[in-house]
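User: Hi! Is it possible to get a structure for several chains at once, not just one? Here's what I have:
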Amino acid sequence: MSDPFEATTATLKDVAREAGVSTATVDRVLHGRPGVRDATIRRVKDTIERLGFRPHAAAAELARGRSHRFCFVMPKNQNVFMAEIVEHISKVRVWLAARRTLVDVVETDVFDADVLAETLEEIGPRYDGLAVVALDHPRVRAAIDELVGLGVLVVTLVSDAPSSRRAYYVGIDNIAAGRTTGTLIGRFLGGRSGKVAVVAGSLSLRDHAERLFGVSQVISADFPNLDLLAPVEGRDDDDHNRALTRRLLDEHPDLVGLYNIGAGTTGIGTALIESGRAKDVVFVGHDLTPQTRRFLLLGVMDAVISQNPGHEARSATRVLLALSRNEPIVAEQEYIGIDIVIRDNLP
Amino acid sequence: MSDPFEATTATLKDVAREAGVSTATVDRVLHGRPGVRDATIRRVKDTIERLGFRPHAAAAELARGRSHRFCFVMPKNQNVFMAEIVEHISKVRVWLAARRTLVDVVETDVFDADVLAETLEEIGPRYDGLAVVALDHPRVRAAIDELVGLGVLVVTLVSDAPSSRRAYYVGIDNIAAGRTTGTLIGRFLGGRSGKVAVVAGSLSLRDHAERLFGVSQVISADFPNLDLLAPVEGRDDDDHNRALTRRLLDEHPDLVGLYNIGAGTTGIGTALIESGRAKDVVFVGHDLTPQTRRFLLLGVMDAVISQNPGHEARSATRVLLALSRNEPIVAEQEYIGIDIVIRDNLP
DNA sequence: CTGTTAGCGCCTTCAT
DNA sequence: ATGAAGGCGCTAACAG
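Assistant: Yes, the chains can be modeled jointly so their relative placement is included. Here is the combined structure:
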């Protein structure tokens, strides 16, 4: 071999010439389209192999000239985390525009199965693909499955509907997230005994229920010195959570740990500060926001469990793009990790 | 109905027609090339704005038709972490091949400034860009600067040379990584008193020195109950580290914490297990490997501080590509976080 | 079954 | 300072 680059610089035309066929035939073989004799297929494949030919992605994209329309279906009353995802979608728009891909965002009540399902049914068919913050409910599953049947790509985002026919889930393993919190609280307490409280938004949300499951597992299995209280629900609302926390602190002088499973962390942190017991209670919550960042630096929160909203926004679009172009997905790149953030590794 | 895509689908030709100029002129304006009257520039820019025109990335790439050659300069005696980066480079090769981009990997003694500098000087000019695991040394800096002067793009990887003219650093903030470890060890010990030992590969390596600095800061400032021993150096070698650890354990019956700053974690873990004190000593090290993963699950290690090798390999290539095409870098996407990995959030 | 041919949208000489 | 025209490598419609 001469120029080490030559191998990768062969074009489809080269292959055609070398194989003694037309470019159209090479193209057919390349994409497994019918209408080519087996013998010819083999000959072409050999030449491709021999020349180390790789189709030029940009040329293919240009020639295909398709454009894609995707839509993100997001919660209507966005908390900071969801708002950040939306913000990142906007940032990716420029990049996508240069690829003739358009992404819309619609907001709906993703917590009401009927409303969500209707939204999906209505807007779904207008798009090539959807990224949905899903509710795991039969009605929603049905809507997703129907769309998939119509040829619309569906990926779930942040919250999954595992039993649906969605093509992919972009988000974290919430049981593992709960377990992670359990271990952190237990370890940070270093043998101290007492009660651990859990505040959830709503336990009918799959991700909240899963996180609760995870934390319970770990606390009961590994930390006999700790006593997990029955979870309370605060609808992800700061005021509710503040009141709930106040009550928990009052009723349990021996409260040593606190886990906020959903949003509304500000309310809890405020109540903790007001009680003067912020430093005595190990407090872990989700999602890195200006508020939780502040709480970490103040020592009110001991850790934040976080999933990178930018990564999730990009990942969802990349996955949709790859799926609709029939390109492979780099699973490793799309994996969303459970980030543990403490004061010292704040991004 | 009119194509809802129309707005984003305007082409350079459309702009030319609307602005009453030729496509060549639009192209000139688009890329700020000289030879266009100010008035014309304004007119074209206005039309671009008005039509919401975005150049089609694929078309541009095709027309430009350039190809790129990059090279990763990696340590010769690769530890697992470095080997994983190399592995990921191979995975990206297919993707890159479709973009007429070739990446080589050369191995050299990156710990010897002269050898590294010579390698850089020798192979650098053959490439459009280099990703280098740098040693922060005057000789190396000079070599990097010279290459940059020749028009070769240089990014540093994992280990930086901040005062050189390298275009970018792909890697973590090592001081913060050290601080993170310090806090974790301190918190996990939950008030227990005793000594904390630090094993480094070599303190003349910038990243090792920085991690030491970080951990010292935190331990001395926030954990008066802990006593940081003078660091020992084990050259990232399992056998050395095992012997060192054995000695540390012997000499300090009150050793409660252990931080391995570099590689060779297996040796330390082995010594810990052999001593029977694995559960009594909080042990934190770097990089997720099959071994450290096992140690986490066994409870021998309490946390692993890790930087995602796949992310780093992709990031370095993306940055090199973006730089050489004069495209913007998505800083947020290329940020390498300090991952805290415990038993429960293992990927 | 296979080949011909006209683009896709942009970039780049080469003229003017 | 500006325009005309050819081509990058692949795809797809249309012939045969």
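Residues 21-25, 28, 34-37, 40, 59, 61-65 of chain B lie near DNA strand D (CB under 10 Å from a C1'). Chain B has three domains: 12-44, 68-170+310-336, 174-306.

User: Great, thank you!
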